[in-house]
From TrEMBL:
Belongs to the peptidase M20 family. It is an enzyme of class 3 (hydrolase). This is N-carbamoyl-L-amino-acid hydrolase. The keyword Hydrolase applies.
């Protein structure tokens, strides 16, 4: 055994761990909701604080900072230009989210830059760190808004009119945050700059834990979508309206939730009602209206389609039985992503044969993959819990992720 090399490797690991913890803790404080989790929504004051953190990280490293037309943030090592190797993720969260989904990829990206500099690597092409805007769609309902606008799969006119729960449009929210919604849209120049995109992300299941592997790569993302189901009933008094006289939208909604579970189980898919809005939302009033959002996912698009058709049919039948009217509207759909073999094989080779896993979670890398070569590196999640304050990855695995990302960037940017 080469004692010197061993000591060197140990010193690097300790060093990386210390640097990781430093950067991580500063970011983790932004918008920390404690046991309630993070509520880091696009264009809110917390988002602006996160954006400030990103700018500061860029400045500390002497990287060139830019915000693109769609609000995505970029930090460049070397002059911004075409064919760059790009890495990063997002800083926003779901309601009650964890610290890792998104931020781990951005922190790892900056630390990978540090690691490359430490290794004395000089990239032969530009290298950039990116923070994509509004990946979760927690505020305006559509996920991956920054990458969808950048690649043109979301029209700027539609984006500007998206509304949050208070009726504030995305355009108004951007203006209030000092950003210009007039410039939104497909950005050829920004796209041409991306030679390859590699997003590091905490795994959102137990795939790597089951395989006892600290890191892996993504093979595919299941097709998925969001559908709004609105049940129109009739508000009335809870104490005086006979059961037979009611048009209670809650009842067909409840049947629809059970039908969705049944359909998903039979078809090998996933269906979730995670967001509901009641009008008028009073204890002693029969609701006039229920808006509920269905999140549907499956290994293939045909299964998603079949499941949503079944759930829609069940909703119609249940609604008719209660004198309630129902509409089901697709708010966003995302096709299946199969990450390209070429980039993935290169990454797997650099990392010495790590596992490749499919996922049911959507990512900006999935949106970008339709336009530029894209890949993902997953870091082990010991419990598989995500979109929850309990989401967690061990620091040793996070550091392994940074080292893996640095090696991948070195290989992509130098050869
Ligand atoms: C994003 O995290 C999603 O897949 O919902
Ligand atoms: Mn997420
Ligand atoms: Mn994410
Ligand atoms: Mn996501």
């Amino acid at each position: 055994i080469d004692q010197h090399a061993l000591q060197n490797a140990e010193r690097t690991a300790t060093d990386l761990r210390r640097r990781f913890e430093q950067v991580w803790e500063a970011l983790a404080r932004v918008g920390d909701g404690g046991a309630a989790g993070y509520h880091r929504f696009a264009w809110t004051p917390v988002d602006l604080a996160l954006r400030g953190w990103f700018e500061e990280q860029a400045a500390r490293r002497g990287m060139t900072y830019e915000r693109d037309r769609n609000g995505n943030q970029w930090a460049w090592w070397g002059p911004p230009g075409p064919g760059a190797v790009v890495t990063g993720s997002h800083l926003d969260s779901v309601p009650g989210g964890g610290a890792f989904d998104g931020p781990l990829g951005v922190v790892s990206a900056f630390l990978a830059v540090d690691e490359l500099r430490e290794r004395g690597v000089t990239p032969a092409r530009p290298l950039a760190v990116v923070n994509f805007t509004d990946e979760e769609g927690a505020r305006f309902g559509v996920a991956c808004v920054g990458s969808r606008l950048l690649t043109g799969v979301l029209s700027p006119a539609d984006a500007r009119e998206l509304r949050d729960a208070d009726g504030v449009t995305l355009a108004e929210a951007m203006r209030a945050a000092g950003a210009d919604p007039g410039a939104l849209g497909r950005d050829e120049e920004a796209l041409a700059r991306i030679g390859a995109f590699v997003e590091l992300h905490i795994e959102q299941g137990r795939g790597l834990a089951d395989l006892d592997a600290p890191v892996g790569v993504a093979s595919a993302i299941w097709p998925h979508g969001r559908w709004r189901c609105t049940f129109h009933g009739e508000a009335n008094h809870a104490g005086t309206t006979r059961l037979a006289d009611r048009h209670d939208p809650m009842l067909p909604f409840a049947s629809t939730v059970l039908a969705a579970r049944d359909s998903a189980e039979r078809l090998g898919a996933l269906a979730t009602f995670g967001k509901v809005r009641l009008d008028p939302n009073g204890t002693n009033a029969i609701p006039s209206r229920v808006d509920a959002w269905l999140d549907g996912r499956a290994p293939d698009a045909e299964t998603v389609r079949a499941m949503v058709a079944e759930i829609t049919a069940a909703a119609r039948t249940a609604a008719a039985g209660h004198g309630v009217r129902v509409e089901v509207v697709a708010e966003s759909t995302t096709p299946v992503v199969r990450f390209g073999d070429e980039l993935r094989d290169r990454i797997v080779a650099v990392l010495g044969g790590v596992p490749a896993l499919p996922t049911g979670a959507g990512h900006d890398a999935g949106i970008l993959s339709a336009s530029v070569p894209s890949a993902m590196i997953f870091v082990r999640n010991p419990t598989g819990v995500s979109h929850s304050p309990a989401e967690h990855a061990g620091v040793d695995d996070c550091v392994a992720g940074v080292a893996a990302l640095a090696s991948v960037l070195e290989q992509l940017a130098c050869r």
